[in-house]
Amino acid sequence: MALGAVPAVEALAKSSTGGVIIGAQTYSFRDRPLDEAIKALKEADIPLVELWQGHIEPAQTKGTTREDIRKWRTTVSLDTFKEVRRKFDAAKIQIYAYNYSFREDFTDEEIARGFEFAKALGIKTLTASSNVSTAKRIDPFAKKAKVRVGMHNHSNIKPNEFAKPEDFTAAMSGMSEYIAINLDIGHFTAAGFDPVFFLKENHKRIVTLHIKDRKKNQGANVVFGEGDTPIKQVLQTLKTMKLKIPANIEYEYKGADSLVEVKKCVEYCKKALA
């Protein structure tokens, strides 16, 4: 079985989208608390999500310190995550991955907790806006837990950050198959790279896609279809290659209402697959 293919995901493949799973990153509904976000996801007919850590962790206010967040992560009851899972189950929405962004300043205890959170949520995939060098610290925990960690890219090309194809190569070199890729096709395009080619060449290591539209040359996030990101070609590649990699909409452009805009994004993706 390819690394990106999971039986639970297979069951969500709809004939109306050619077998492609259209999900969402719950960051798309960052304007509302978790319960309201779940309602919006259900109304938008989203069957699967990558859960944003900001929907579970305490809101960071002006007085919040790094140590405050670390203390919460290392002491919070796992029942908190089990209750979140129950809420999604009640809404009949599958949590496929949890976004927990391991960074260089994470302690080993903080890293380990991410995999405990995954277990409490009943999932086998984490995603992380991480550092390239942090992969070697994450790998032993990932192997022990048998949880894949998809490294998320951004567009700004900086040392030790994920943006270029070779950044993914460097992170995965010498690591287990549990160090994987969460490819953001919008950021990848804005950084000057081809997400269609990368998907075809690396699909066995890709656990999720983030679907957004951006202009090239570090351009802005824009309404789907108004940028340079080959959204349709990426979705058609998933369809023709029969890849069960969730295509998760991540609404980031400036719109009127997040629910209205996410619905538009869903419809765009469905038309692209028609």
Question: What this model shows, in words?
Answer:
The chain is built from 11 helices and 10 strands. The protein is an alpha/beta fold and 274 residues long. The chain has one domain (7-273): Alpha-Beta Barrel (TIM Barrel), CATH 3.20.20. Helix 5 packs parallel to helix 6. The relative contact order is 0.16.
Topology:
Layout: H1 7-10, E1 22-25, H2 34-43, E2 48-52, H3 66-75, H4 79-90, E3 94-99, H5 108-121, E4 125-128, H6 135-145, E5 148-152, H7 165-172, E6 179-184, H8 185-190, H9 195-202, E7 206-211, E8 213-214, E9 221-222, H10 231-240, E10 247-249, H11 258-273
Summarize the model shown.
The chain is α/β, with parallel strands linked by helices and 274 residues long. Helices cover 40% and strands 16% of the residues.
Kindly list the characteristics that best describe this protein.
274 residues; alpha/beta; TIM Barrel; eight-stranded parallel barrel; two-stranded antiparallel sheet; 10 strands; 16% strand; disordered N terminus
